[in-house]
């Protein structure tokens, strides 16, 4: 299952009991409850199995792995009323429809049809796009007036929806869907979704639809479109209204979260829907409008969608039996911000995550507070965590408080290095390598040149030689890179360069080649998805702070398995003009398990004295030095780290974590004790933009440097000198 399927299955599982029988409408290549896993499901789709496979197999954007998930279609549905389906399908325990409802010609009719298919107390499980995270972002949310028009005059509304989709359609970074976090980042950096049609094209569309509308009521062939555009708040209000006034018999049971560009809703069938929902509809409507106002007053972000605890007021208790409010929680952000120290952290966990903090989390955030991290920043991090995103707890006043903290934060002044203190090494380094780094860090923090979280990360990096940016990589970019790599190995990619285990000879990736042990070099030269992942905003921000200028990506490696490489320092192998003005980063493409050859490092080893090859260099040159100095350096590194008592630490990463290490940190790969485990990662090496890698001196044609988002990049393996290569 891909992440979308897994997340849908997780949020809908509480409503699918043992032995339940369900219907899935339009699962395509992403079935939520596959028959192959033992679920009792009737599959209803737009065409027969063979035609469905052929349709998706011909789409280059859909992987063969996803196509293989297509299940046998039991009933072919033409898109008209679901009540025309066999009567034997009625009485289902649940009906699942993921990314179907927004295409329905008649929203009210679709909900009524689903109600007919369900037994009393059965669930309608819906996943649908959040209009702010897809190409519909500039379209107004669908209204009750739209619902009424489509129900009475579906052909007329059909024309309206096609015109709106064509006129308002927009892309962000050339994509038609994006996570909300990516939208926030892009907007803050002055980039907004770009409308795809000009006024001239809009005029042509108007004339075209006017011409083709003649006798439209007599029937026209079905044309696909997003006929309905929702965000969680607008959807909740409409379905609750229809339950009371239109006889859909479906009340809103829960809205159990969001993922990437979609949100979820659970509706329950009850013949007394007008009584169950009617008494609280006005209260619910007021809450939705209040949430919308909070979003307007705050920032570009997800409106406060009703969660399970909210909807319980309208439609009954949480089916999981969880308490709506955890012990120690408060009702709004102002009550939370009034607390300090450990009391604040405990209350933040209870309010945002509905649980008590684990000891590590408690001590970490208490230390963050002591280091000057604002309380609103800690609340934000808890809300943005994977657990917080799943729960989507409502916290009145949060968005306004968050906006105020940003507006009131003094803008950083340009950093002008004034320190003349010596470096730890005669080979220099960045400003964190100076002897007075801690004093300089405090000075910059006091002058508001650095965010509190950046201060914490820099202090950790300087003291330990390594820092982790938790969940920094966007899920959409992780998926994009994984998909591109998988497609390359499956179908071949003549430009993508690989190296076999123990062999540095470059080879193109060929169709069906064995991935185990193979490493992909400088994937950013052939795959834009790799470039996007290696320019993750939080990573770029940290590197810019360390280098005090734009970072340059000059090398990358991608692995499926652990390398088992012994402890080493990058300065011995990865050569740049100024050897200590370089860092490495390691992006976890999956959760790392013990025994998979996990990355290990020796804390503090970046402050070892210099080992000089040939008396002048930090890098080993096999032609000049030969093997003996290399063996002597390896022994020295092990013995010196042992003598100084440096602790070995393993990086058991979570998917999306980014580890950044100092150029001189001793690190390597642990032994693989469980060969069945993978350890998928993407590694990059960066230096300041005004520093050159050695290969740029040796081969000037490889010195070509391009820019992408906040970084520049060059490559030994790819010719980037063509102007068309620039992003």
In short:
The chain is of the alpha+beta class and 727 residues long. It has 25 helices and 23 strands. The chain starts with a helix and ends in a 14-residue tail after the last strand.
Please supply descriptive tags for the structure shown above.
727 residues, alpha+beta, Rossmann fold, 4 domains, ten-stranded mixed β-sheet, eight-stranded mixed β-sheet, 23 strands, 15% strand
Topology overview:
Layout: H1 3-12, E1 21-25, E2 40-45, H2 49-57, H3 64-67, E3 75-76, E4 92-98, H4 107-117, E5 118-129, H5 144-152, H6 154-168, E6 170-171, H7 180-188, E7 194-195, H8 199-212, H9 232-245, E8 250-254, E9 258-259, E10 262-269, H10 273-297, H11 308-315, H12 333-337, H13 341-353, H14 359-370, H15 375-384, H16 386-391, H17 398-408, H18 437-446, H19 452-464, E11 466-469, H20 475-491, E12 493-499, E13 507-509, E14 519-521, H21 528-533, H22 537-547, E15 551-559, E16 583-588, E17 599-602, H23 622-625, H24 627-644, E18 648-650, E19 658-662, E20 667-669, E21 681-688, H25 694-698, E22 706-708, E23 711-713
Parallel strand pairs: 1-2, 1-4, 2-3, 4-5, 15-23
Antiparallel strand pairs: 5-10, 6-7, 8-10, 9-10, 11-19, 12-13, 12-14, 14-15, 15-21, 16-19, 16-21, 17-18, 17-20, 22-23
């Amino acid at each position: 299952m891909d992440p979308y399927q897994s997340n849908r299955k997780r949020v809908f599982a509480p409503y699918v009991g043992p032995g339940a029988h369900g219907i899935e409408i339009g699962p395509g290549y992403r079935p939520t409850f596959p028959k192959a896993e033992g679920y009792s499901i009737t599959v209803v789709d737009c065409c027969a199995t063979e035609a469905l496979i052929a349709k998706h197999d011909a789409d280059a954007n859909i992987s063969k792995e996803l196509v293989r998930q297509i299940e046998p279609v039991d009933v072919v549905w033409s898109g008209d009323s679901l009540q025309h389906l066999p009567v034997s399908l009625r009485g289902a325990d649940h009906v699942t429809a993921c990314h179907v409802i927004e295409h329905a010609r008649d929203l009210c009719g679709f909900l009524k049809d689903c109600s007919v298919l369900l037994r009393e107390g059965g669930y309608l499980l819906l996943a649908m796009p959040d209009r702010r995270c897809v190409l519909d972002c500039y379209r107004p949310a669908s209204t009750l007036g739209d619902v009424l028009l489509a129900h009475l005059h579906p052909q007329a509304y059909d024309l309206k929806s096609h015109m709106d989709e064509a006129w308002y359609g927009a892309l962000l970074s050339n994509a038609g869907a994006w996570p909300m976090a990516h939208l926030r980042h892009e907007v803050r950096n002055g980039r907004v979704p770009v409308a795809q049609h000009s006024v001239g094209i809009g005029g042509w569309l108007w004339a075209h639809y006017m011409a083709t509308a003649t006798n439209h009521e007599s029937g026209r062939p079905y044309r696909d479109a997003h006929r309905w555009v929702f965000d969680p708040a607008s959807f909740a209000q409409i379905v609750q209204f229809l339950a009371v006034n239109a006889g859909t018999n479906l009340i809103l049971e829960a809205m159990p979260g969001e993922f990437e560009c979609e949100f979820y809703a659970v509706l329950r069938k009850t013949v007394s829907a007008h009584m169950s929902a009617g008494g609280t509809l006005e209260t619910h409507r007021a809450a939705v409008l209040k949430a919308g106002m909070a979003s307007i007053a705050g920032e570009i972000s997800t409106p406060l969608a009703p969660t399970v605890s909210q909807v319980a007021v309208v439609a009954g208790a949480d089916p999981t039996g969880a308490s709506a409010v955890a012990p120690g929680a408060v009702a709004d952000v102002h009550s939370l911000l009034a607390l300090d120290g450990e009391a604040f952290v405990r209350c933040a966990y209870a309010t945002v995550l509905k649980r008590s903090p684990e000891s590590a989390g408690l001590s970490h955030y208490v230390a963050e507070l002591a280091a000057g991290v604002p309380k609103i920043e800690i609340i934000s991090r808890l809300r943005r965590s994977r657990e917080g995103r799943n729960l989507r707890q409502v916290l009145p006043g949060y968005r306004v408080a968050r906006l105020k903290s940003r507006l009131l934060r003094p803008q950083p002044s340009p950093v002008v290095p004034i320190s003349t203190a010596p470096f730890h090494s005669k080979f220099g380094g960045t400003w964190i390598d100076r002897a007075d780094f801690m004093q300089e860090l405090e000075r910059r923090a006091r002058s508001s040149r650095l965010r509190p979280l950046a201060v914490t990360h820099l202090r950790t990096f300087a003291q330990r030689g390594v820092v982790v940016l938790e969940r920094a990589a966007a899920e959409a970019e992780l998926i994009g890179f994984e998909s591109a790599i998988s497609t390359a190995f499956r179908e071949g990619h003549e430009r993508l360069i690989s190296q076999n285990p123990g062999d540095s000879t470059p080879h193109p990736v060929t169709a069906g080649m064995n991935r185990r042990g193979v490493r992909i070099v400088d994937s950013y030269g052939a795959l834009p998805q790799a470039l996007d992942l290696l320019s993750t905003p939080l990573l770029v921000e940290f590197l810019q702070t360390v280098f005090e200028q734009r970072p340059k990506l000059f090398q990358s490696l991608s692995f499926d398995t652990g390398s088992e490489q012994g402890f080493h320092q990058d300065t011995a192998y990865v050569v740049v003009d100024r050897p200590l003005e370089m860092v490495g980063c390691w992006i976890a493409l999956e959760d790392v398990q013990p025994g998979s050859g996990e990355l290990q490092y020796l804390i503090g080893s970046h402050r070892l004295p210099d080992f000089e090859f040939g008396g002048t260099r930090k890098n080993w040159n096999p032609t000049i030095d030969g093997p003996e100095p290399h063996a002597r350096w390896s022994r020295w590194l092990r013995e010196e780290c042992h003598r100084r008592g440096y602790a070995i630490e393993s990086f058991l990463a979570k998917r999306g974590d980014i580890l950044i290490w100092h150029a001189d940190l001793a690190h390597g790969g642990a032994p693989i004790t469980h060969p069945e485990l993978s350890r998928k990662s993407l590694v990059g090496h960066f230096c300041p933009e005004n520093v050159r890698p050695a290969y740029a001196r040796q081969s000037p044609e490889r010195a070509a440097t391009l820019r992408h988002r906040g970084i520049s990049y060059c490559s030994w393996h790819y010719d980037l000198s063509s102007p068309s290569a620039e992003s």
